[in-house]
Design brief:
46% helix; alpha/beta; globular; three-stranded mixed beta sheet; single chain; four-stranded mixed beta sheet; 443 residues
Length: 443
């Protein structure tokens, strides 16, 4: 078993090494300066990093329903929150107290699969009548898309298949024929099933956290080095890092990529920062992600397709483009799925809603003020300081690089900015990470 775990860990680490090596090979920074920065961050303790704005980390109890969790994230204007096991006041181990981190990524997975499941349920009556159980989600999701066969049918519970047959619909063609039609005409019925019928309305954060684990809980201590946090947020591709007291499982801070970049902006005026920030991004090797690597969505494609693209590629946003040359006309973020959940009455036929229709609906319904959906861009001759300012001041997670015709030629994410300032010293994984990353690798 130990050998199997070691093999799994080595494969996982190799994946991160490949990603980070690619970034480092494209980065144009003098070696001496890179070493100076890395050494400086290795001496800064995590305890010196500013606390979350409210002074208290927002936590979500594991038994909170998904709908309520979305409200908490939205009202708090955050993308993720640690999930806490109820009644663990006396727990002395963070593993027993915190189950993971819930974010919009996991919620998107749940919504997309539930949409197909709801279509299947509606074609048989209701979710309750169909006898839908949590274990049938994958099979019904596939069947709702028209995938049939022994393997798919076997995923249905006997109760679900029995109820479907009792309703006069043959199990072998129920999903393939009727579910897509039901899905195309779901409208408000989708929300009735998801929000009012079982098992959807009682679906808890605990249940989707187990099924759609994307953002692992990887804590560091207050006495850890900021270099460790920066590497977790860059090389190891985490979106946030919980900070716990070294002798208790209490969480005292929650460091996000966005918070780090905002912190970097406040370093303006310091020599080590200015010598990088005043350079053009192209002189630093940015954007690391080139034109061919940018994943985009056409404005006339379906909004659900956009969220599927985010799900499939594990990314937090997409540029909305038009035409074969990908002229940017908008921006879509992973957190925008909250509009499909919090205000369902404005989307009476959401499965036929295009990306542009979605953005227009949100704006016209006054759900967002300011420049919702508007693309935030920069040029290849923009300075790093300008890019960091845009990311920090507008609380966005990516900025798209465009040419003179507003065609997308690259993208710069928060992770890219952080990666510019750090590299991993030899043996840092073993010497500094301790249990944290290895715990993540074993999940």
């Amino acid at each position: 078993m130990a050998q199997e775990q070691d093999f799994k860990t080595s494969i996982s680490l190799s994946k991160y090494d490949t990603y980070f090596d690619t970034i480092q090979s494209r980065k144009m920074l003098p070696q001496s300066l890179q070493e100076t920065l890395t050494d400086a961050f290795a001496k800064i303790p995590v305890s010196s990093f500013p606390a979350v704005p409210s002074g208290k980390v927002i936590e979500i109890l594991a038994d909170t329903t998904v709908g309520e969790a979305v409200k908490i994230l939205s009202e708090s204007n955050i993308l993720a929150a640690p999930v806490k096991e109820p009644d663990t006041v006396t727990s002395s181990d963070w593993r027993g107290k915190y189950l993971g981190i819930i974010d919009y990524s996991a919620i998107i997975l749940w919504v997309l699969e539930s949409a197909e499941l709801a279509a299947a349920a509606l074609s048989a009556g209701t979710a309750t009548v169909a006898g839908v159980g949590a274990g049938t989600v994958g099979a019904l999701g596939a069947l709702a898309l028209g995938v049939t066969g022994p393997a798919a049918i076997a995923g249905l519970t006997a109760a679900a298949a029995g109820a479907a047959l009792a309703g006069g619909i043959a199990a072998e063609n129920m999903m393939a024929k009727d579910a897509p039609q039901a899905a195309d005409n779901l409208g408000e019925d989708f929300y009735k099933v998801i929000l009012e019928e079982e098992p959807f309305k009682s679906t808890t954060v605990r249940s989707i956290l187990k099924s759609y684990r994307w953002s692992p809980f990887v804590p560091v201590g207050r006495d850890s080095a900021m270099l460790t946090v920066l590497l977790l947020l860059s090389k190891y591709r985490l979106r946030n890092v919980p900070v716990i007291e070294s002798d208790t499982p209490e969480m005292v801070n929650f460091i996000t990529q966005s918070a780090v970049v905002q912190g970097l902006e406040r370093c303006k005026g310091r020599d080590w920062f200015d010598c990088i920030a005043e350079k053009c991004i192209s002189d630093l090797g940015l954007p690391f992600m080139s034109t061919s690597e940018v994943i985009s969505i056409q404005s006339n494609e379906l909004i659900l397709e956009a969220f599927k693209q985010m799900r499939d590629n594990q990314i937090g946003g997409l540029p909305v483009v038009e035409g074969p040359k990908k002229r940017i006309v908008g921006n879509l973020s992973i957190r925008d799925i909250r509009h499909l959940l919090l205000r369902p009455e404005i989307f009476t036929n959401f499965r036929k809603l295009t990306v542009m229709d979605f953005m227009n609906e949100v704006v016209s319904s006054s759900l967002e003020t300011g420049n919702f959906g508007q693309p935030i861009t920069c040029k290849l001759d923009s300075t790093m300081q300008a890019v960091i300012h845009s990311l920090a001041s507008q609380s966005i997670h990516r900025i798209h690089v465009v040419d003179g015709q507003d065609e997308v030629v690259g993208v710069i994410t928060l992770r890219d900015v952080i990666s510019c300032f750090v590299t991993e010293p030899p043996y840092h994984f073993d010497d500094y990470y301790g249990f944290a990353v290895k715990e993540m690798m074993s999940q």
